[in-house]
Amino acid sequence: MDWIHFLSRANDVLTAGVGATAFALLLYLLVYNRGSYVARTFAGLLSCVVLVYLMDLLLTNIAGPAYAETLLRLQWLSIAFTPPLYLEFVRAIRLSILRDHFPSWLRPLSFGLGALIAVLALTSDLVVHSIAVSAGVYHMHPGPFFYPFAVLFAGVTLWGLRETLRARRLCYTHTARRRMAYLSIGFVAPAMGVFPYLLLSGWPAGLPSGMLQILLTLGNLAVGAMLALLAYSVAFFGALMPDRVIKHRMVRFILRGPATAIIALIAFGIGLIIEPLLGLGPYSLSLVALAAAIILAQLGIEMMKPVLDLMLYREEAAEVARVQELSQRLLTTADLRQFLENVLAAVCELLHSNGGFLAILEAGRLRWEIWCDVAMSAEEIADLPLAAVHRVGDAPFIQWDAYWIIPLRDKSGHDLLGLIGIREPDVALPLDPTLREQLDQFLAQASAALADRRLQQVVFEAFGPLLPELRDIQVRGSLMRYDEASAVGFALVQSPELPQWVHDALAHYWGGPRLTENPLLQLAIVRQAAEAYDGNVIQGLRAVLADAIERLRPDGERKLTAPEWLLYNILEMKFLRGQKVRQVALRLAVSESDLYRKQRVAIENLANILIEMEKEAQNTS
User: Fold this and answer.
1) CA–CA separation, 594 vs 565, rounded Å?
2) Is residue 389 within 8 Å of residue 416, measured between CB atoms?
3) Which stretch of DSSP H or E encloses residue 109?
4) 20 to 30 Å CA-CA from 249: which of 114, 456, 516, 578?
5) pLDDT tens for residues 542-566?
């Protein structure tokens, strides 16, 4: 086979692989990191990469130059919007780490310019024109607007790279600096993936065409690796969970998704190459290779799990392994039921019975849990001779109607855990020693399962109050990855003193120490609002409070005495207008004591609105 043709096929496989990788990473970020502004803007860049690589893939084995020109022009929907999306991506990083903002006019200007370039590329020859072929690769000729756009494209990319390096220097922790270094290394990957290099000068006729295929292959490998590295760094922005969980989830997703897809595509391509050499029909071997690659890749990932865990967790591998083992060994209700069903069936078979049941003792009452060909009501279960069972001593069972009632006790033999009832067993008394030994083994297994389940429930009840604290610690740690200010805002809105701080700020709304020294000044929403007032956080806090009160306003025409308007009217009249308590009470037709009670309710509602506003602000940072 011609080696140039082989390189072309390999490049087609890599093109599909990089496109699949970008698409998979796009889905990952939209599913797991959609609350992060950084992740959303990077997802926009990934969508540009996906469209360009999709068009490149469709360009293979095309019908003619007219079709190729249409596909190449459609690529400009991505190429034209890459610089604006890069600006948004850098803006999101600056908001998260540097806490500064772009001029407000830059966003509409950049996207407007991108839309103009896209329209011109699709409908005119001002950006690109006339199809050409260099070394077997289709491309367009540059128009008069292409070179200014190329300079702008390169300038935005290099400026963004400089900003990411600047952000890295401002990170405090070694981990944050390392991840920002990864982000800087992979920052140019979307630009490398979408920019049409052949428009600059075409492919020199004196160079071998095979060199172009080699460069395209190496470029695809570099873009794919850098995209994965960049997505790994972005995945930590806005993810409110421990780093180890993010790393493990991200790596397993890449292995099971993009990596498996690339392996499958390579196997498919090799199958296509080998088929004619072996005299096989089209797709006879390639489809088998595709299916085998997917199955073997999944099996390999499962077999590599211990090695992956060791690589990902390192010094905490022992603790993580213990937690994983605990999660696998825990008895759920379904696990316990299935195990007890098996024990009950084995006891019924051992004693030649045609049915039975198992009841669990909880809070001094029996609860019907498992049955085998027996229909009993809850009242019948409650009527079981529980007192007689407690007095049974060393006897293995007591007789109750047509049942043998066998107690299930803990290891000490004192605490009753439950009962097994066997209907009309067909065995002679006393039991044969061998039969008695087998019965004791089954009863011991059931008792051990019930005892472990009871102990597990005690542990869960003790562990339950810790979960909110652990969750808050994880959230604070996640917010502090790149910016400690977000963690401060989170701590403020979680504080039980928040309603009091809101009341203090409202009480001195027009000036005073309870406003100028208020902890609410550290909120992210206040810092963002302050930008409209030349960085004046006092004015920013006033604006935030006024906005929050406005969100409390009901729909429709304002009515002073309507119940649904009462909370809004109290806050607006007493604090924003500064009217006296007596005056407000008279206008709202309520007593002063009732006014104070409703005021507390209004402030609590206002505090909840501030919590939601702060969460929205942190999600866009």
Assistant:
1) 15
2) yes
3) helix 106-123
4) 456
5) 888 888 888 888 888 887 778 888 8
